[in-house]
Amino acid sequence: MSFPKPFFKWRPHPWHGLEPGLDPPRIVSVYIEITPFDSVKYEVDKVTGYLRVDRPQRTSSQPPSLYGFIPRTYCGERVAKLSPKSKAGDGDPLDICVISERPVNRAEIIVHSKVIGGLQMVDEGKADDKIIAVLENDYEMGAAEKLSDIPDIVVERLRHYFSTYKYIIGKELNQSIESVYDRDHAFKVVNAAMEDYLDEYGE
Known about the structure:
Blueprint: E1 27-34, E2 40-44, E3 51-56, E4 66-69, H1 77-81, E5 88-89, E6 95-99, E7 110-123, E8 126-127, E9 130-135, H2 152-164, E10 175-182, H3 183-201
Parallel strand pairs: 5-8, 6-9
Antiparallel strand pairs: 1-4, 1-7, 2-3, 4-6, 7-8, 7-9, 7-10
């Protein structure tokens, strides 16, 4: 039996089998792992490509946006060089938060998103950047081209979430948000992560 292209005969691995976007680094595809309604940290299983439970969220904090990764990216040497306080990349696909007007309550979906900025996060000495994007065809947020085009409170909530989501009472936090950056630097991080992926996995 023949299958018309680009029909996938089998489900592709969301990290390795999907394209990074329509026009990266500006317009990227995002595989969503977590929604703002989730009190459990879901993460794609690197072997099977299916979503698995990583851990229940320890605190009452919930993600303020859709959260996932850009396919065919890898946080390696190039990404680490863009993060002065990082010794290495975290070895994961590049994380990304997608902001939309309408609440989206489903994970394991693909959304086309416009990159507008990011958070330079360091987790246990490793680069763990969080790219910030808007849903490309969103009626309210879709016109944004840079970080200053969205309300400050949205970025503030993202900063607070990632500054505290691993907090354990009585233990010192080992991650930090070093800076908030705009679109131009975000483009550099996305490009670096795509190049790191090619170094690690090839075409």
